Amino acid sequence: MASISSYSSSLFSTILLLSFFLNAFAHGTPPTTEPIQKHRVALVLPVINSFKEKIVDPKAMTRTWIGNDACNNFTGIECEIIPDSRLQVVAGVRLNDFSLVGRGGQLSLKGFLDSFPDIYYFYAHSNNFTGTIPKINTEILPYLSDLDLSNNKLSGPFPTEIISATYLRFLDLRFNKFYGAIPPELFNLDLEIILLNNNNFGQQLPSNVGSTSALLFSVANNKLTGPIPQSIGLATHLVELVLLNNQLTGCLPPGIGLLKNLTLFDARGNKLTGPIPNSFSYSGKMETFNVNSNSLFGTIPEALCKMKNLTTLSVSNNYFTRVGPECRKLIPKGVLKIDQNCVLGLPNQKSKAECDKFLSLPNKCPDVSFGNSKVMTVNLNKTNGPFNKLFVRKAYSNAMIRNSKVVKLNDQRGVGSVATRFTAYDALDAHKSV
Question: 231 phi and psi, to 5 degrees?
């Protein structure tokens, strides 16, 4: 299975910080012997101390939060020195897996997340934050790029404050209690990673989902309804798409065949119907294709079974009736899993009565050809509010490789060469974080 590789380097840190802070803080080029300016860190020290007083800290993370040297002594508080200006800032907060609890049971992000004006990343996976997300627009947090609030106790409708975080490119809200619709504006942001799985999001996926620039998109284990939007075929950067365990209906969009970089497609546990479009075999990098437990029927496309990178083709518990010779070769190899279908001559199939009853229903997907797909004529507005996406991409141009599944993130110190590997299936585990 493919993975999203996350790297960090001192070059990346320097480029990013220089790109976003230079205009705000640089006043000429002072000599390198100038002392480090720490007044920006001093501004947030009261915020850090106030937060310490509000929490129960079962792992004693804050035992190091003593004195005034937050950058060198405080666990989870990570700083950078802006090139040329010699200005030290709190560039990141990393509180993953500390199980922090608010005194009295409530632990709000307000007054904490929104009080670090220079942060680039905020990671708080696996704690007990409650409520919703405060305002984090570009006026309040102008450099915020990575936000991980997964596996907390956040609730309410989708936090629309996120839409105003224009430079955000990594968003992880999985394993919370958010509900309601996913706003279409989310897919106009220049996000690389969108992890919304294991919440209570409902209604339909927005019709402009194809305008996303994401490489990894997971909405598994929610309550989404309606069809997979035809525009999904325009999300050409997608590498991993996980839609499993929702209530999605309708047919598989032929436009998914446009996704040349797609390695993982998982839509099991929905209410999808119709055949698998032949266009799916155009996704030549496909490694994992899983549509178990739907109401799909017809023939498994031979071209799909010929894909050289394919390691998992799971179509069990559907109503497929025919399997060609190329696909049959994959059954003894364990690649093709086709139990509980309607294929004569294969073991572990549905009963004839059940198959006849289903197959007597009218075909609701008469047109599954690639050329006639509606996705070919969809025209979406991919602008990003007052900020042009091209500007953002140029800012990251030396620090991000878009089409090779490389996403740059900070390591445990904010610099260095530690590489972590994280996939859409990792995202289904509440205890895993980037």
Answer: -65, -10
Torsions phi, psi for 427 (to 5 deg): -65, -20
Cα–Cα dist 66/413, whole Å: 19
Amino acid at 99: S
Contact 165, 134 (CB under 8 A): no
Coil, strand or helix at 426:
helix
State mean pLDDT over 1-6.
44
| Per-residue pLDDT tens digits for 166-181 | 899 999 999 999 999 9
Name every residue whose Cβ is closer than 8 Å to that of residue 255 and which is 6 or more positions away in sequence.
Answer: 210, 230, 231, 232, 233, 234, 279, 370, 373, 374, 375, 376
Check if the beta carbon of residue 42 is closer than 8 Å to that of residue 72.
no
Over residues 296-340, the pLDDT tens digits come to: 999 999 999 999 999 999 999 999 999 999 999 999 999 999 999
Q: What's the whole-number mean pLDDT along residues 247-260? A: 93
d(CA 286, CA 262): 6
Here the tokens at position 196 are 């919304």
Helix, strand, coil abundance in the chain, percent, nearest 5: 25, 20, 55
What length is written for the chain?
A: 434
Radius of gyration from C-alpha coordinates of the chain: 24
Query: Could you give the CA distance from residue 328 to residue 299 in angstroms, rounded to a whole number?
Result: 12
